Task: structure prediction
Amino acid sequence: MIALLPGESRALFPRLVDEMYDLRLSAVRARRDRPLGAVNRLSVVDYFDSLDPLYVLALDDAERIVGALRLLPTTGVTMLNDAFAATAPQRLRIESPLVWEASRLTLAAIENCQAQERIIDRAIGEIGAALNEIAQAAALTHVIGVFDGNAQSMLFRRGCAGESLSPPMSLDGMQMFIALYEVGATMDAQFMHLAGDDACRPVNLAEFESARFYRR
Amino acid sequence: MYCEDVFDLIDRLARADRRSVLNSFLDEFLRATGLADVAYVAFNLPTDVAGRPLLSAACGPSWRKIHIQSRRVDLGPLQRAGLGGIAPVSWGVLDRDDPVLRKLLGESLELDLGANGVSIPLRGLDGEYALFSVCVQDPGSCEMSRHGLMRQFMVASAIFHAMVRRGASSALGSHGDRLTDRERACLRLKALRKTDDEIGSAIGASARAARFWLETARARLGGATVDKAIEIALRRGAIGLAAESPDPPLESIPLAPSIDWRMR
Result:
């Protein structure tokens, strides 16, 4: 199941928000590429979360979050344009009302378990398909993904890593990848095959509106 | 908050400066686009003067009349629904049982504005929030698809917001009005009537990347379409058809956007 959580409504959904940050935390800890002492809840909530982004959350059958993604329009403040301002390749600054940025793709770190891998496939598929549908409803042309190495590798293994827009960039000692997705049928097919036949259909605009008031 | 604070705020609002700059922009914009009923509201808009205005708003003549007649300080439900989010809000999905919305739509119908439209949230580079709303009198009669119409509104709203930003503060603009090398290459090849596949091959990427760089170039130049962006780039000397030319200095780039498509 896919739930869309507008940032301005986060106070209404404390369980979902807590779970999403916990998921980020466990993903960072699982990477073990930084001292554990440096990783806490504060380190996985960044400035961009305060900008009321739109969160796309993949929930399993028990309604626990198994995947999450954050969306921001590139006309405003974004990770690519602001967090990477000092390190981005020359003038890689994207500002368009028809392009949004997807960042903080986080997936439950349960890939080593064969039985659970299907859950991750489905989460990636449903998040991607929902992303495409939201983007179509907003008449966007493209979505840029700003993903860490872990998320990028999960997407790459499943053939949906998008098209690389630049060499990897460094942020807080992590390699970050910039991926381009074109909104439309190709993107939908790319993700829907992962979501499988039994997948929930991604939300349409009307459902999206009602999801604004989704309450547990 | 103490009651005195509320009355003090109302008093300060009543004494606040009112500037005609937004409405003059809107009039110019309506003339250029052929749109009839548009409203725009912005919070935290950066300006040249110290301290940002609490609220900046502009409405088409009919909506202006409603607000003046109602002496309305409160924002309408559309603004409330749209300002916090990032996705466009189609009025059709709003809760029409909401008495405030019913009243607003009733007024809208009385003034022959129609009860259909879309509100597009805008996020700015300096932390400002805005909402651009357009009435669509009869969406069924429009030749363009809903998707195409929405895309035009998205582009129009961003161009209008850029105009307002530039009008509010001469020091502001986009963080980069100059084209990148890839954008310039794509625009130039597009001007030479190359296909997206050919442009992609020429820049060592795919057709989808070519379309992406064309879109970012369009947005950077403030053109309503890629063709308009090409015209602007040629006029400014940012691209040349004979050979790739270097970017002109920023000072020589005129800031006025080009909006000359018509839509109703």
Notes: The beta strands of chain A are 2-6, 54-59, 65-73, 99-107, 142-148, 163-164, 169-171, 174-182. The CA atoms of residues 58 and 152 of chain A lie 17 Å apart. The interface with chain B takes residues 6-9, 51-54, 71-73, 75-77, 81, 90-100, 134, 136-142, 163, 165, 180, 182, 205-206, 208-209, 212 of chain A (CB under 8 Å). The first strand of chain A starts at residue 2 and ends at 6.
